[in-house]
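Continuing the batch. This is chain 6 of the set; chains 1 through 5 are on the previous pages. Same settings as before, nothing changed between runs. Recording input and output for traceability.
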Amino acid sequence: MWVPTEQEKYGVVLANFRGLVQYGLPLEIGDTVQILEKCEGWYRGFIIKNPTTKGIFPSCYIHLKNAHIKNKGQFETVIPMEDSVITEMTVTLRDWGIMWKQLYVRNEGDLFHRLWHVMNEILELRQQVLVGHLTHDSMSNIKQHITARLDWGNEQLGLDLVPRREFSMVDPDEISVTELYQLMERRHRRKELPGQASMHHLFVQVKGLMSASLGEELEVFLFIYDSRDSRPISERFVVRLNKQGVPSALEKAERQCTLFVDLGSSDLRKDVYVVAHIIRIGRMVAGEKKSVSNVQYRRPFGCAIISIADLLTVDSKDDHLLKVYSCNMETEWYQIHDSIIRKVSSRYSLVGSNTGLSMSLQLLHGDMEQIRKDYMRLFTRNISITKRLGFSDIIMPGEIRNDLYITLEKGEFEKGGKSVARNVEVSVHVLGADGQIQKDVLCAGSGELGVEQHHSFVLYHSNSPRWSDQIKLPIPMDLFRGLHVRFEFRHCSTKEKGEKKIFGFSFVPLMQENGSILPDRTHELLVHKCEDATYFQDVARYLKLPYSKTNTPGNNQPARNSKESFWITSFLCSTKLTQNGDILDLLKWRTHPEKIADCLSKLKDIDGTEIVKFLQDTLDTLFGILDQSAQRYGLKVFDCLVHIINLLQDSKFQQFKPVMDTYIESHFAGALSYRELIKLLKWYIDRIIDAEHHEQIQQVLKAAEYIFKYIVQSRRLYVGATGGQGEEEFRCSVHELFKSVHLFLSHQSKGVSPITHTQAVFLRSFPTVCCELLKVFLVREVAVLAHDTLGSLPVMAHTDCPLQAVKLQCIAKTVESPLYTNQECRCVVLPVILRHLQVHMQEQRDLVMCAHILTGMLSVITKDGTVSQRGQECVASEEVNIIMDSMSGVLLRTILEVTNCPQPAGTALRLQYQDVTGEFVACLLTLLRLLSDKDYQRFLSRFSSKDELMAFLLQLFTVFEILIRPDMFPKDWTVMQLVTSNVIITSLLYLSDALKKNFLNEKFDFKVWESYFYLAVVFINQQCLQLEKFPPSKRKKVLEKYGDMRVMVGCEILSMWQSLEEHKLNFIPVMIGLFLEATLVPQADLRNVLIPIFHDMMDCELSRSGNFKQVEAKLIDKLDSLMSEGKGDETYKELFNNIIPLFGPYPSLLKKIESETWRESGVSLITTVTRLMERLLDYRDCMKIGDVDGKNIGGPVNLLNFYKTELNKEEMYIRYIHKLYDLHFKAQNYTEAAYTLLLYDELLEWTERPLREFLGYPLQSEWQRKECLHLTIIHNFDRGKCWENCIILCRELANQYEAYYDYRNLSKMRMMEASLYDKIMNQQRLEPEFFRIGFYGKKFPFFLRNKEFVCRGNDYERLEAFQQRMLSEFPHAIAMQHANPPEQTILQAEAQYLQIYAVSPVPEGQDVLQRDGVPNNIKSFYKVNHIWKFRYDRPFHKGTKDKENEFKSLWVERTTLTLAQSLPGISRWFEVDKRDLVEMSPLENATEVIENKNLQLRTLIAQCQTRQMQNSNPLTMCLNGVIDAAVNGGLARYQEAFFAKDYIANHPQDGDKITRLRELMFEQAHILEYGLAVHEKYVSLDMRPLHKKLVDQFHMMRSSLGLQPQEFPALVRASPMHFVSGSPRSCRTPVPSAISPDGPRMVMRRSPLTYPAVNRYSSSSLSSQASNEVSNITGQSESSDEVFNMQPSPSTSSLSSNQSGSTHVNNSAPASNRASPLPSDKQKHSRDNLCLSPRDRLCTGLFPSTLDPTARTVPLQIVDPTSSRPEPNLPTLEKGAGSLGIGMRSYSPMPTNKSPQKTSMPPLTPSPIDCLPPGGLVLNSPARSGSCSSGISSLSRCSVSETCGMDPALSDSPVPLPVPVPTLEEPMVRRGSKTPPPYSVYERNNLRRATPLPHSLSVPPSADPSGLPPKPHLNRSHRLHSEPRQRTVPRKVSQL
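Output for chain 6:
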């Protein structure tokens, strides 16, 4: 049976368990499990990381671990009882493992690998900790290493900062908030500002001298040199190099390396250098013959230097190659390094260009103990330590050092009877009094062993040598007495013998007669003559002689020359020996009592280093004198004691304070000294007020701490010796002393006086004085003394008084002292401390110290156990209530003041500011955390009035709002943020009752309630509570510790809202946005709690005003801004809309509304909001995509249409217009950007109405903003090559300028218009492809789901490229392989399906396409712009297919797609609004094919005649294709199929169609004949054979058709006489489309505003239906030669073509249209635009006769009898109308001379709000000219140069041709005024009727300039038309 476990609660899985048994729980190795029950070798439990799944598993698979159980029972929690560092490592590594894999996915390789190494390192360290075989120090080091790695990884991964204490994580509930903040701050500050080490060390390794072989050994002496003081600051380090220039002992690495230690921060300067002196050991003169001398001499070689500053930026060991310089004169050798530093180049020269000293150097930071730990490898081989000359900046008490340094400075010697100067060598010995030479006491430097003799280097031929050669004498302290140093001088001969002959000596004793060591200075020694070394056998002979000029000469001295001298410099660095005789005299005071006064007076002048050497002996001496002669020497002894105490305050000697403390505790024996000390101290204090000089008094008070230590210890010794006698006397003396203290502390002086400084000095030591008094007095007695002392201080002084800061420092130390820790003392001193704090915080002074004090106070109270935990109830101590009453108000005000002040700029000040803010916040949170329910009630009841309570609550709520701001704490302080949130929510729950009690019903106060609700909503939305974003482990911890605090606050909001009752109306609509923001948080319970509040709001608003328009407006406005920020999701939308409750017991909002009487309006509102949310969600999803494409363009298009048509919110509509414009502009969709901005332009009038600043537009008039928009739209249309649209806008602007006489801008606008015409004629424009795309399935966004669109492709984009682009935008979509309508299953599928194929544009009502002689440059624009309809054809066979002639049953299914808006427009794609399906019979199909081919032939012939093509190859190919296909049976098949008697009899209704087909066949033959005639004229010589072949084949074709020339009707005979101007197009027959050579037809020309268009048909050959099948879907065909040679294959379809680039994409384009073109394809495309368009787009044209090429070609005017009358709306042509181009005759393009100048202009600025540059349009000109004209607007203001034209950088257009000016003699052609399709996005009401343009694009009824009203008095604000302007959409008044 299963039994609950008692001990077996926690374990780790040892092996994988598959869990195949019934109820088995699968386990993986390493999982941790919690065990609930056990039964016969089996456990039942769950995995810790998945507690919801429980099961059984074998007990043998589990390793049990000790654990602590909390909440034992059903909801128990198991905490493993292991080291907290181990637990943290385990949890952290699990979290890292998940994120580590994500790094690999995100391709962050660097961090991936670094984290992998750190994780492995942590695992290895964890293993060492688990083994447990480490010492305590090793364990601490490893834990420190682990936590450092954990912190590094958390920081790199953006995880939280973990608060730790001694490597262990801290539970925030077990410490105060102030302590938690300090821990976090300390760790954060350590991370931001690594501590600056005060000690530094330099590691040096000499690798060798890089040069040619020297042949001599070398010695390298390294030392650190301070060039500012011109002195070395370190001893020397020696490295010996062999003859090859490498270290002699390579196997001993420690002989090559050293560590220069104890460098202070002041030594890391630019003028501190590492100097290397190189000495060679060899012959006297380098390079002399070997036979000269075999004696080796030490001779100068070279010097190298490097600055310490060059090493500061290098963290690792770096190699350096230093240049080596030699001295030009050996006499300057002693200062060669200084010459190099100062760059005195005349004194040194480079040894060689290839010579360099190779060294490795690295600066190390920290004390030596830390260096030994961090760089253990340096100390494993006993690396040489090179010490500093003298002591370091900090002297340690335990340091023992006895080093004497002697430097051989210089000498003055005589020649000695020689003709040349001597080569002097100095030999140094250390000898005892007995003449015995001391061994191993001479060192040339560190790294060398001691020797008994040292030889200096030799300077060649110098009687005044200067060496500066330093020697170290490490002599033991006990051997100093009796030792002396002897210097022997020898002349080194350069002769063959090379003898060294002694000629003199000097000596110096090391210890003087009084016991002091040789003083630190330069000594001039006497040189005694000596010609024989036997003189030194008896040292007593010369020790009696004087050794320097300061000594008195004795008898028996040898002969000496007074001109010869020898100088040395001595320097002692010893912790035991002294060179000061005065201190020795003081220590011997009993021997010489007469010298006591003099010795005490000289003590202050002795160096502190000498005093601390003999600190204990000196103190014993002073107290001995005080006990023996207090009357005589008491004051002097007291002053000396004060001097010594203050000496230890110096940073250099502060390490000796413990030495003095030890002396006081263990060695001090002055039992009676306290009486004299108290008396003398009181004597000084009583003189303070009247004294003129306070220096000595301040020194005494500065030493008060140790004076009281001596007093207390002396009293304790006395009590111990006498059994407590004199207690009352001692107590009285101390109280009298403190009365004097209180008297001088209470003294107030004006300004800063010496007394003020004296008061400050005493206050610094007062807390420690109190702590000392606790040893001899009762606690409460000392507390009273402290209270009285602090109370005697003035509360507030003037601002500059230094006493205030010191007073707070004193209070801070008091709080940290045992005086405050003791609860009995704390009750006494707390009130006076709070009084001072309160005053300082009110005055906003010394806030840093105030925060520190308050933090310390609260931390002590928390630690002291004054808060007892009794279940869930916290009982605060009385001290907390006292602090709360005194400090709460001022604390809140201080936090508000500090947080509202701007942060300082400096780093240190900013960190200080953050510290102050954080500490005050932590104090407030600690106080609130300590308060219980009763404390809250007591505290709130103390407010005497409602106004005071309201002020406090408002302040508290404001501070809470500040605390939960994102920038309050660093982002990785989640622990601190959660603790703050927990305290806030606890306080809110307590304060809710106070709100209901004091501010409801008749006491209602809106401001307090609003602040409460605002705080609650901000609390819910703070980032640290969004648990959904946390990792699972972190989320679990937060929920276990705090629960979901958002839901708790949400419930409190609902409760408070319901308690408002009739006051709810005050918060409508103010709080709608706030509550909406709270409900958008993705927490189900929170949403269900708060959404019903909207029902209440709607109900209240309806009862007040009869509707809830305010609720609706606020909901919509706020939804847009909030969801744009990323809030809200699909679930939230459903919760609003769905009737079925989604979560828990709460009904959805719609279900609540349906039960109300106002159901219909409520449901309508919810439906509207839901639809808006759908669009906002889609828009947000679109904006997440990085690239700008169709998908994220569709979102804003859909949204702005919704705002305009359904919500009628003009401001939001305009905002999204500009968002869409920005997207288009970013994607370089300039045409769409212009159309988008035109929507805003249409909302504006040409009036002077002022408009406010909006969306970056400045404050300006409506006229100016519309002008700015026009210029920006023109700029974008120009970049999009829609120059026709630019012209319209230019005309409208020109008319405005003309109406106001702004001729400057008018001129620029007219020049711009002219340049646009030039661009139309001279620049190439690509015709885009169009594609139909269907989005099927529920996985698509709302605005795409189950809809079909037509998309305008990019430049050079073919079908396959478009398909690949769509699949890349929707990577999960499936491409459909057919063009059939999708089935219902696909529409409802939870997937994405794409159906893509090409479609052909169908221009409507574009007469320009039917006009003859209009260049293709013009026609190409109208073929692909302003298109509403698109079509595609699908061929199929109906009935039985005739294998002999497939044309009999070949039908075509033609689908016409009508869009909701025309392309191009505000988007590159628009939704299909209507689909029409018709079937074309085989006869109709054949008719259309032949007619299309005839039109194509006419076009090519006309282009060839007018020289619009470079060569005749396109015409050649087309003729070849048609004639060849006809010869092979193409037309004959049509005859066979449709001219047979059976067909005519069976289809009597097709008589007219058959006749039409016959006429088209005749016409084709006629056109071919004429085309061959034109071809013959223009064909090149190499193509003549092909032309002859074509003529022959044409005759064969005519014969095959059974047609002879005489059989042609007269009206179609191919004679040049039949064609006026050489065109076969017109005919006089009444048959439609017949050719008439004589009958002219009037073709009405239309304004560019009408944008005429004509249907574009797919072309096909006469014999290939396969091509027709391909082109029927795409609307395109292959090139002519390919089409006419393809075999018929009716079943072939591009939808299943094997040529498709992808098997998943619907391919419906011919091969020429698939995939993006190569450069060659682009050239082909450009050529096709001149001959065959990619889809064989059809257009008509006249065929001019073959006139003289130089003559002007005038197209024929063909007058249509039905349209010969002018339209009534056109104005009567008057004189001067030619300037408007109305009724003018059209001319064919002709070659003319180019303009000698090329106009240029500045580019147009793409920003609508930038000011126009000089030379641009004058926007504020007082006069405008012109009548109202059409135009298009844009978002950016642009400028036009004085010479006009568009941006030359956008397109390299050729020089524009001059525009021909018509004359009155030439006949004029009138133009129509048909209205074009609209630019705007508004839907058409009648699809069959062309929708008029918006007024901004429409043509005024009268375009006659003469009809303009008088101009001089025209006001800009007046309307330019007598009739009101008609707008497409009613205008909404909006002051934008």
